[in-house]
Design goal:
- The structure is a homodimer.
- By secondary structure, chain A is α+β, with helices and mostly antiparallel strands.
- The first copy, chain A, has a single domain, classed as Arc Repressor Mutant, subunit A.
- Chain A is about 65% helix and about 15% strand.
- The radius of gyration of chain A is 21 Å and the shape is elongated.
- Chains A and B meet through helix 1, helix 2 and helix 5 of A and helix 1, helix 2 and helix 5 of B.
- Chain B binds a DNA duplex through helix 4.
DNA sequence: ACACTCCGTAAGTTTATACTTACGGTTAAG
DNA sequence: CTTAACCGTAAGTATAAACTTACGGAGTGT
């Protein structure tokens, strides 16, 4: 499975997006990420695992803590997926416009 | 809820992504989209509804058929979300680098 | 009027997954 | 060596959502 597909799967959950957004602020321990959240700390751990597999987060061990931060690989993959899609869509639009023009010519 | 969040929710499902990709090819009726897919036609209809509410698809009635095509609004929203995230992430990186430099200076 | 095609929705079921509690491992500190 | 902080994983449950079948409406042709 492509990385971009995994990032989309990972970001398809509201709580996971919330957790992911918290990583924007910089390096955060699991306890810090979970603080104030409506779900338990183990749940956060599981979400972080998914984000990690999706190339959206990286861990760094620091004593007894795991410091999580944003991994740009996932974001890059997502951007690539989006750009590719965008191009093909625009091309389809152009084709549709050409067909439209051809139909115009015929009915004249 | 922001549009970008809804697009992420919508694209968080593999079958829905597959359907969405089929819309790239241009205007397609529901029957055409569902053709050869492993899920039933009503299922496709439901997915298309979700894509529509997520700003990723638009419908056009043509006789007894509904022609679906890609809506760029959702893609634009997603791109915006991604860009915003990217900026904040880079800024966090810069801050981290500065802190790192400050620490370097202190220990010297 | 009738038949046929194409499609959306309702209702119900099934399946995936988000979540909790319980537990054990690792590290640092007293 | 004990205690405590921090965290990941296992197992089980609960909930959301993807899917099916059944149905009816709307348009088109005969």
């Amino acid at each position: 499975m492509l990385l971009a597909e995994r990032t989309l799967d990972a970001l398809g959950d509201p709580t996971r997006r919330l957790i992911f957004k918290r990583l924007k602020g910089g390096n955060k321990s699991v306890e810090e990420v979970a603080r104030g959240l409506s779900v338990s700390r183990p749940a956060v751990s599981q979400h972080l695992k998914v984000l990690k597999t999706a190339g959206l987060a990286v861990v760094r061990v620091e004593g007894t803590r795991r410091i999580y931060s944003v991994d740009t690989r996932g974001l890059t993959a997502l951007r690539g997926w989006l750009d590719g899609f965008w191009d093909k869509t625009l091309m389809a639009f152009r084709d549709a416009a050409e067909k439209e023009a051809a139909r115009e010519r015929e009915t004249r």
